[in-house]
Amino acid sequence: MKSFASMLFSAAMVCAVLFGSGLAMVHIAQADEAQTSIQQAVASQQTGIADMWRAAKSGQAGYTTSNSPFHGALINQYPAERLTYRSDYLAPAIMLSVFGVILIFAAFVAVNGPSRLEKGFSGVEIKRWSKFDVWLHWIGAIPCLLLILTGLTLLGGRYFIQPWVGEAGWAAIVNFSKQTHDVMAIPFIVGWFLMTILWMKNQFLASYDFKWFLVVGGYLNFGPFKGKHPDAGFANAGEKLWFWTFAFAGGAIVVSGIIMLFPNWVEPSRSLSMLAIIIHGASSVLIAAFTVVHIFMATVMSEGGMECMVSGYCDENWAKQHHNVWYDDLKRDNKLEYRA
Q: How far apart are CA 151 and CA 157, in angstroms?
């Protein structure tokens, strides 16, 4: 009996071990099956996400309750490198176009000196600009300067100003710059349009303009260039170059600025908006550099030049030295208007 009981106990233990092993194998199989299901679900989800992004990148429209013009576009489609153009290239470029050109011209004036009137001031002034032209010049010039300064701040300030003023100070500067930039854009657009249309007739190149460039307008006070006074009409070759730069680069600034300033009117795509930002910044680099040159030439380099855009009159000796063709034409036609 005892032996039979031992055998029965042993059989029971074997059955228990086998049953436990079977249960363990079932649990392991179920766990493997669950893990496989999870992996398949994750893979399916990843495939779905990848398919969604592929569709989005290809421009496939989605569905939304938004009423905006481009609500079907899930993500931006423009190349990612366009974002770096603004930060890595345009921001440093506009800084150089302003401060770099200022330093270059300051060094040039220190070495070369200004262009003096050989015969001094005559004390006789002749009319060069009408009162409307003088008014129009400043309507364009003052907003242009403010736009350059505020645009310089908005484009590159985070790299050159923000580290020095802190977050709160930077936020105030950005807000002021943005509001000023938007407001000054309107008179600039008006000034750009009127100046381009009304002053164009005097800005076409003549044969003597090429000689003007060869002697750098007679502004150099050394070597074979000293004392040279090349022919020039109402506008000399340098002023004509500035005018056409202002006309075309300014036009690019105006068009791209309107796209950014009035998005509800223009309704640009995201790619067009980014392109407008790039064009706006690149054109501003040109305008900023030429503006610095223009200011130096009118105030420092050309003795008696600034008076033209203050009163509209210029000294007669200044006209003979810097714009002799224009002066001779007026004198021949008896159209010289003297200041009383």
A: 9
